[in-house]
Amino acid sequence: MCLDARDPYCGWDRKQRRCTTIEDSSNMSQWFQNITACPLRNQTTDGAYGPWAPWQPCSHNDGEGTSTCLCRSRACDSPPSRCGGKNCEGPTIEVSNCSRNGGWTPWSSWGQCSTSCEIGFEVRQRSCNNPSPRHGGRVCVGQSREQRFCNEKLSCPQPIFWSSWSPWSKCSSECGGGVHSRSRNCENGNSCPGCALEYQACNLESCPEVRRNTPWTPWVPVNITQGGARQEQRVRYICRAQLADPHELQLGKRKVETRFCPNDGTVTCETDSLVEELLKTPGVRLTGSGWSSWDMWSACTQDCAKGYRTRKRTCTSAEGKSVPTACRGSPVEYQDCNPQPCQAPNSLGVRGCWTVIAISLPSHFSRAPVHAC
Predict the structure, then answer these.
(1) DSSP one-letter code for 172
(2) How far is CA 100 from CA 18, 21, 58, 137, in A?
(3) pTM, whole model, 2 decimals?
(4) Could you give all domains of the chain from N- to C-terminal order, each with its CATH number?
(5) What is the residue-averaged pLDDT of the chain?
């Protein structure tokens, strides 16, 4: 082309295979010109397509397979572009009769259920690429996704949890320190962590002190002289404790009172000093304890001139064991007996003898030996 340009500065470089000036040529022996006429002006021509060739069978590969179609082509030669003109624009080949309808792939397996129990959903899918539609073919008809219920008959396990705490129970003691409790339940099972029962100290303030005296026992002769004068003695108990209920009072001090009675009857019996002895037996109130039936009355302490007799009962636990301090009330009762006057005493010239007797007292108190003639 440059040879026909009739440009004195332009030549063809055979080695570089392009138009160059003589200065840009690689070798002067490889550069030549062909100037036989003066240069022509306004020779620029844009390229244009020629007519389509007839349709012919052909093979077409669209990346998913090769199929037989009808094809035709055209060339950019009517005219070709020259002297810097534009090349042809548009397709050089047309393909026809290659349309293909789309087809579904098989359904996939059902996916994992959306819940592990009770009603949920599971999904399966398919794709319209078996084959894919192309060149104007129909797309697949139908749904590409299906879902269905699952686990609708599988019940979820109930949650296991503690119920709310119940109110605190009544304190076991109104004062002096007791215990009360509260409870809770393990709902829907029995594996709740922690305890179902809770205990707490209550009513820690001290109980008021309570004092009570038992009745005096009847007077009992303990020392009779040869002349007929005698000493008599009676007993009572002074009990004290810090208790919420005064009826629970069981323990205390034993008080002994002695008096002297002359034999002529002109002077009343005189009371001597009191003797007190502290009994330190601990007392515990036991649930389920109770009194036995009363024993038979004992023999009267005197044959005349008014004596007394006693009867006893026993405090026992639910297991049948003796627990003297666990029951309310007295374990012994006293009763007067033989109130008739005595006959005249036998006047002997010898001194009377001393005999040891014992006063019957409650089983949880000490026994005091008493002498009488």
Answers:
(1) S
(2) 48, 57, 16, 4
(3) 0.29
(4) 1-38 (3.30.1680), 168-202 (no CATH), 209-372 (no CATH)
(5) 75
